[in-house]
Every structure is written in C-alpha cells, then in structure tokens.
Design a protein that fits this description.
Elements: H1 11-21, E1 29-35, E2 38-43, E3 61-66, E4 71-74, H2 76-82, H3 86-89, H4 101-118, E5 120-129, E6 136-146, E7 151-158, H5 160-180, H6 182-190, E8 192-197, E9 203-206, H7 208-214, E10 222-223, H8 224-229, H9 234-246, E11 253-261, E12 267-279, E13 282-292, H10 294-308, H11 318-329, E14 334-340, H12 344-351, H13 353-371, E15 376-381, E16 384-390, H14 394-410, E17 413-415, E18 418-420
Antiparallel strand pairs: 1-2, 3-4, 3-7, 5-6, 6-7, 8-9, 8-13, 9-10, 11-12, 12-13, 14-16, 15-16, 17-18
Helix pairs in contact: 4-6, 12-13, 13-14
Length: about 425
Amino acid sequence: MCARPRGGLSHAAFLHAEIAFCRFGRGRRRLPLRRGGCAVTDVPPLAQDGFGPEADWLPCGLLLTDSEGQILAANATLLRWLGQPASALIGQRRFPQLLAMPGQIYWKTDLWPKLCAQGHLDGVTLPLPDAAGGGLRHCLLSAQLSRDAGRIGFVLFDAARAHLRDQDQARAGVLAQLRMRWLAQIERMAGVGAFALDPETGEIEASDRVFEMLGLPAAAGLTLEQLLARFVSGKVRAAIRDDLAQLTHLQATVEHEAVLSTPAGVLRRVQLQAEAEWLGGQMTRIAGVLHDITRMQEDQQRLWQAANIDELTGLANRRLFHRRLQGALGGGPFALVLLDIDDFNAVNDLLGADTADAALREVAVRLAGLVGAAGLAARLGGDEFALLLPAADADAAAVRLAQSVLAALAQPLDVAATVLT
C-alpha cells in the first residue's frame, strides 16, 4: 500500500482509497485519486446516508463520525463485530464509547490529541468488544481528520493474530504508560487513581495517586490484600473480594463506595470501580479506578444542611419539617405540637438581636431534648417552633409533649449575662 500523504486528503477520499485497496469487485466508479505517487482508481462511492452497499461486503470495518466523535455511519462488517444494529450507534454513541475501558483512556489521553495535531493516525491497535467471541477484538485502526468537512473517517482491520504475537510487549507498554503518561493526566483532571490487578498473583500495578489515597509509599508495591486492608468495614472488604472473584467468569463492572483509613488514621470516602479485560475467552487482568469522593461528599452534606437545617438553631427548617410531616401523614399515628414564644419581640427590642438569637438557640436545645432521635424539632421561622413525635397513642403523647414543653421553657434562660423568664 502506498504511504498516506500528510495533508490534503478529505475523509471521503481517504475512505475511498482504503476501500479500493480492499480489492472489492462490484459497483465501482472511476475516481482519479493519487496517493503518494500510486494511482487509486476503482473506488466505490460514499453513499449520502452511509458508505453504500459495496462497503458492507468489505473485510474491514468502516466508521464515519463528526469532529466530536458522534457516529454518522458504519458498515455492516463493523456492526457485525460489535453485535449492534446501526440504530444503536448512528447518532446515539461516540467512537470512544465503542472501546473497552483501557482503550477509552488511551484514546482520550494520547490518540485523540495526536489526531487533532497530525490530522491522521496509522496502524494503531485498539480493543473493541467482540460480539462473536464474548471478549475483545483487537483492531488495527487508521483515521483521517477532515477539518474542512468536520468529519473523521476510520478504517479498522482485525489484528487478532498480530496482537497475540505482540501481547507481551503491548502489556508491558500499557503498564509502563500507567505511571508515565495517561494516568498522570487523568489523575490531574479527574482526581482518580488507576490500577491493574493480576488475577493469578494478586499483585497490583497502581498509579501514584492510588498510593497517595492509601497513605502508602509508591515504591512499596501493592497486593490485593494490602488494598483491601485499608477499607474500614470488614463487610466491604469481603464484598469487594467476592465481586472481583466473580469477574473471572462474568463480564460485569464492580462498583463499591466505602471508607478507607490510611496508616496515619486519615479517613477517606472512595469509590472503587473495576472490570475485567478478556482475550480469547480468558481474563487477562482486572483494570479499575479509585476515586476519592471525600470532598464531594462534604460539599453534598453542606448543600443538604443549607437546604434543610435552620442556620441559627441547628434544628430542622420549615422545608424539612413539611417533608417529614407529609411522610408522617402517610404512616402511623404521631403527636404534633406547635408553639411560639410570648412577647419575644420585646426581648429583641430591649436586649438586641444577639441576645435574642442566643435565647432562640437555648430554646432549640431544650426542645430537641424532648423528642430525641425518634422525633423532629423544627424552627418554622422567627419564634415559631414545631415538635413531631411518632406515638401509638397520639392524643396522650401530644398532651405529655405539650406539658414537657411548658415545663422546659418555664425554666429561666441565662443568656449573655441576662436571665430571661
């Protein structure tokens, strides 16, 4: 095959040229195209809604996307490899979504920047899910970016034999890149660490970010048992171990969210995701990521607090009270007490807002103590409060709760060196 020129070849011409080299023998038309000094003539037309019927008989996969990777057309060979109908891909998925997880990472961090910079890719090996074999189909991929047309053309050849011959070298290359190239970029962008588990030895090759989350030195090495030992819950450790073992015969994704503890006692909430990589019906390794979501959880907790908790008193606010009341109305009996503080505006006028706020906080403490963890004390606004308490005898419980409120608030409030009665 003649060398591909470095520029000036549109996506349609590129695909036509590749098709021509496949020596397809029907439905051709003449196209005076010259590549690297070699004339390419008998080329099938590119149909407006796809590649035309000729392309469906080719032994290679053809794919056309827009400049963002959205799939616009695919020939029957590629659809057969993937075990997907055209309707599931065209306009529905992007090219990286067709790849196995390591291939997606490799594409986003290495191949896509190269394609944008060079305008083409040549002879790249990438894994696709293999509908026929149930594992991965390793393909040799060439791609051409047409900036004028806003299209990317892909040609994929089945490279299973070449992959088997070079798998040791490829695996070593992937593991080396784990720390040196794309994982470092992923960690900076997404705050995650990646790892690869050897299911036979239990040894883990991990990025520096994983070691950082675990609180372990990166040069120490890591095994599955050492990773599991950092999780606080024994049940979580057992569940992760069992789920990873299931990956030896199931194609699924393992997902867990749990708390781990570093040797220094630092607690972190993390998400663990892992899935197996298959080749020839055999699992070769388990690839996964560890995501530190401690800060995200703290942010979510702060948002929940702001939406549901009264900032001054720490009691439930009106919104949370109404939600809990609606739930109680659909459940069993409960006692409900509504109250306000007589002449509280006078406290605010005479002693100032700071003293009034301190008095409200003291009232809130006393009311919260009356309902305990089973009930709900809420500040509805100003000096208005509500108490909600599940009870088998709602009427009797409401009377007792009201009497307890009167007794609790009858005691003087000692706030800001002032005694309020």
